[in-house]
Design brief:
Blueprint: E1 2-8, H1 11-15, H2 23-39, E2 42-47, E3 55-60, E4 63-68, E5 78-85, H3 89-98, E6 111-115, H4 126-138
Antiparallel strand pairs: 1-5, 1-6, 2-5, 3-4
Length: 140
């Protein structure tokens, strides 16, 4: 089972010009991710630049349109993620309990866990077979 630990953004994260975090927080995050790596459950993880550097693609009856950032409502944005692969939902929950406060000790912050949909959860189809072939190719 794969889970994404989503670090929700906040106004302070959106205001950053360059990635900056107190050394203590960076050390906590590094230690946590190192522990994930040693346990063999870490797949990936990274922070994201503020939304002002990104864009969204909106789909509608008239087609697609591009909307440049920044985006309102920082609490609806994500600032980073960690992707883990564990045996059970309970194991993912335990890892989430150990995740360091991404805003720093004593600050308000939110992380959210979401399970990834695995290809085997979809009904069989020729299109799914193509996705499985691509997935197998990426793993080699």
């Amino acid at each position: 089972m794969r889970f994404m630990i989503i670090v929700k953004s906040c106004p302070a994260f959106e205001a950053e010009v360059t990635p900056a975090a107190p050394e203590e927080l960076m050390a906590e995050m590094a230690a946590y991710h190192e522990e994930l790596m040693r346990a063999g459950v870490l797949l990936d993880g990274s922070g994201l630049h503020p939304s002002r550097t990104g864009w969204r693609v909106h789909y509608g009856p008239e087609g697609k349109r591009i909307v440049d950032g920044p985006f309102a409502e920082a609490k609806e944005l994500i600032a980073g993620y960690t992707l883990i692969q564990v045996r059970t939902r309970e194991e993912a929950l335990e890892w989430s309990r150990r995740f360091p406060n991404p805003a720093g000790r004593g600050m308000e912050a939110v992380i959210e866990l979401r399970q990834l949909i695995e290809l085997d959860e979809f009904p069989p189809s020729p299109a799914l077979d193509k996705f499985k072939q691509m997935d197998a190719h990426q793993k080699t």
